Amino acid sequence: MQKSQRIKIFATLLLLIVTIFAIVQIGGDKQMSNEELSKLADYNSEFYDEVTAKELGMTYNEVLNKYDVDKQDRLLHEFKFYKLNYKNLNEFHIVGQTEGVSCRNKAVVNYSDFETATFLLFQNSEPEVEHECNGDPCTSCSFTRNSEGEITGCNLCESPTSGICNHKITSGG
Question: Which of 122, 140, 143, 163 has its CA 20 to 30 A from that of 105?
Answer without folding.
Answer: 122
